[in-house]
Amino acid sequence: MDDKEALRVGAAVRRRRRSLGLTLAAVAARSGLSVPFLSQIENERARPSTRSLERVAEALETTPAKLHAAADSARTVDVVRAGDGGPGVRRVARGGHQLNAKEFTGEQDTGQEYQHRNDEVMYIADGAVEVEAEGRAYRLERGDTLYLSGGVRHRWRATEPGTRILVVSVAEHIDATVDPRR
Fold first, then answer.
1. Maximal C-alpha separation, the chain
2. What is the pLDDT of residues 118-146, one digit of tens each?
3. pTM above 0.70, yes or no
4. Cβ distance 168 to 99 under 8 Å?
5. How many Cβ atoms sit within 10 Å of the Cβ of residue 111?
6. CB distance 57 to 67 below 8 Å
7. Contacts 24+ apart (CB under 8 A), 62-67
8. Closest alpha carbon to 44 in 97, 1, 5, 98
9. How distant is the alpha carbon of residue 71 from its chain centre?
10. Contact between residue 17 and residue 59 where contact means Cβ atoms under 8 Å apart
11. Which of 80, 83, 87 is nearest to 104 (CA)?
12. Cα 173 to the chain's mean position, in Å?
């Protein structure tokens, strides 16, 4: 592993610490490492030794291998070509990343009501869509964008042939909700 790879584990450490709701001080107490050193690791200004990374991983209830894997997944570059996927719905970002992105084409109308844990943005690339959210109806046309915060019940349907919609949302496995107690 080169120096650049070793340094990039910091973002994975920070994400794991935050997902557990821990402060740097709490991780320092658990690991026996100093707060400034942990901050330098998270900000990728310090390279942890194998033993230090083991101590950090143990404090974060994980393993060094999982932190490295999380760091590797954070650096993913993936191209999805226009012809990839089938008609109707196609993923425009693959894998278990922090964002989900799908393109819907044609006259979509599942009649289904949705409620997602995290925020979502709907962009109308072509055509028109009717959306019902929070008891109100919205007509969206080419170039319009609709933002829905997590927890909003909604349903939508494309109303014109050739409608193309891009829906981007924070992935369900990500806890992006705000806890007012923090």
1. 62
2. 899 999 999 999 999 998 999 999 999 99
3. no
4. yes
5. 6
6. yes
7. 62/16, 67/9, 67/12, 67/13, 67/16
8. 5
9. 14
10. no
11. 87
12. 8
